[in-house]
Amino acid sequence: MTKVTTDLAKPQPHQKVAGGGPTSVRTAETLLRVAPMGLCLAALVLTLKNSVDNEYGSVSYSDLGSFKYLVYVNGLCAGYSILSAFYTAAPRSISKSSSWVLFSLDQVVTYAILAAVSAASEILYLAYKGDEEVTWSRACVIYAGFCHKATASIGVTFGAVVCYVLVSLISSYRLFTTYHAPNLPFSTSTAAAAAPEDDESAAAPPR
């Protein structure tokens, strides 16, 4: 009898836990939240150490606003990744409000890092290709080392973006399959105003 009770108490595969989903889904989500931390930190270190000084002059990440923004966002995302991973890893009941907060933060972080890496990619593209219309020369011909490190940093950050997109999909799926979308005030008033018109049209005799 004791053995049967012990076996029943053990968590079974794909068993739903207090975290709001199957154990395998929660584990996958936790790993996807931890992975961007390492990627963001790697991109952060690459960018911070990216500076070149040669006979033509010197260039550093701090000279470019988009790369400074990339540093800030990578640091922010690394911190958010570890905090959210600890939160989702613990088997606890997640309320409706906390689910909405987690979903909203996932969206904000995803769009923030996507905007940062997109802006840095545009600057790097101009450094490689130049722009003859505005007499922007190909800076990577002179500062090849800087461009190589910047390319590596952007590539690693894009890996973090992929992880955040998957995390956002998981959090949105969990939220909208568990709870309904909130009722908006204008949608309620519009539906209430449309109801009498429908009743009048239904009651009117055909001509």
UniProtKB/TrEMBL annotation:
Keywords: Cell membrane, Membrane, Transmembrane, Transmembrane helix. It is a multi-pass membrane protein. Belongs to the Casparian strip membrane proteins (CASP) family. GO terms for cellular component: plasma membrane. It comes from the Eukaryota. Homodimer and heterodimers. InterPro entries: CASP/CASPL, CASP_dom. It holds the Pfam family CASP_dom. The keyword Transmembrane applies. It is found in: Cell membrane. Residues 1-23 are annotated as: Disordered. The chain crosses the membrane at residues 69-88, 108-128, 140-167. This is CASP-like protein. Residues 24-163 form the Casparian strip membrane protein domain.
